[in-house]
Amino acid sequence: xxxxxxxxxxxxxxxxxxxxxxxxxxxxxxxxxxxxxxxxxxxxxxxxxxxxxxxxxxxxxxxxxxxxxxxxxxxxxxxxxxxxxxxxxxxxxxxxxxxxxxxxxxxxxxxxx
Amino acid sequence: xxxxxxxxxxxxxxxxxxxxxxxxxxxxxxxxxxxxxxxxxxxxxxxxxxxxxxxxxxxxxxxxxxxxxxxxxxxxxxxxxxxxxxxxxxxxxxxxxxxxxxxxxxxxxxxxx
Lengths: 113, 113
Prior knowledge:
Shape of chain B: globular
Low-confidence stretches of chain A: none
Low-confidence stretches of chain B: none
Distance between the termini of chain A: 33 Å
Largest sheet of chain A: 7 strands, mixed
Strand content of chain A: over 45%
Number of strands of chain A: 11
Radius of gyration of chain B: 13 Å
Order of helices and strands of chain B: EEEEEEEEEEE
Largest sheet of chain B: 6 strands, mixed
Order of helices and strands of chain A: EEEEEEEEEEE
Structural class of chain A: mainly beta
Oligomer: heterodimer
Radius of gyration of chain A: 13 Å
């Protein structure tokens, strides 16, 4: 399977715990994105990497959120001290250097209880 | 600031008929518009795109029309099939910088047999 891969698919955590999600993009794609989707809404942009450099962060990304893309390959998104409002689908996408379309992974569904 | 709007939360169409999904936007800087299809518990799947310099793009059963003066685009699916039942998102893209997608809220399409 050469698509975007996300792990885990589902995560249930208690409020206040830390969680980390992983994304493996399509191998030749140098652009990687994280989005968040809540019920009834379209995906909202969180952050963007070009290779290993994090070039843009949304104001939605509070200081409890951190993302990394070491070596420009896979990426991780960590949420510290989770809150119930963090419950959402977290989507990773990647795109080729000259491509307009982004390809999404299957997402990680986070539920904070 | 909702730059991309899908004003119809849901649409029901009979199998074999044409489905027309609409999208309006406010940002004249978008260079591309993309349509994504999303099944429950999965990530969005890219369907079709159109450059802002075009007024039509066709791919099999899917055609996207762009009316720049009205800041309106539509996705036509003909003939509609039961497997087309999903949530459809339109998104705008500016190719400078992060190339992040700005999504509408989505329209749930149901194809009835």
